[in-house]
Amino acid sequence: MNDLFHTLDEILIQKVELYNNLIEVMKKEWASISDYSRENLETALEQKAALLAKVHELNHKREEIVKAFAQKLGRDQSEVTLKTIIGLKENTRGNRMSARRDKIRDQIKTINNINLENKQLINRSSLAMKKSMSWLYEVDTAYTPYYSNGQLSEPNMGSRVVNTDV
User: Fold this and answer.
1) How far apart are CA 105 and CA 102, in angstroms?
2) At a CB cut-off of 8 Å and minimum separation 6, what does 45 contact?
3) Which 8-state DSSP code applies to residue 51?
4) Taking the model in full, what pTM does it have?
5) Domains of the chain
6) Poorest-pLDDT segment among 8-22, 89-103, 132-146
7) pLDDT digits (tens, 9 = 90+) for 90-127
8) Degrees to nearest 5, angle at CA 6 with 82 and 94
9) Which end of the chain is more exposed for a tag (fewer CB within 10 A), N or C?
């Protein structure tokens, strides 16, 4: 069972590192949105997707380890949790695992907060763009010979020049 404890501990270490990287990428995502930098945003979103794929992979490995623990303990898999494993008497890594579990919980809260902030920023940016486009259209209608449907209109001319050379 020592191998299982070691493997689970390694997965938790990797997960903490991945979540740290994910938090940094999400901060870059926020900065890209606020700077209206499409290129940087696309790069950040690609990095985020790659990190989330790795997180998914680690979660799958963790589930396999929990399943192995359940078999060793002779319990149903749904009864065995990380908390259960941490509390086992033969787990010499319990304190470290508990600290990592708490760190992961804090990171998840941070990720959720940043995600919410990014969504709100996207919504505000989108609204600001819509208002700007609407304002530009209103201002531009006084000077353009085109309607919004593409039809040509006669622009209002306040005065006309008269040719006196005739």
Assistant:
1) 5
2) 29
3) H
4) 0.73
5) 2-128 (1.20.58.300)
6) 132-146
7) 999 999 999 999 999 999 999 999 999 988 888 887 77
8) 45
9) C
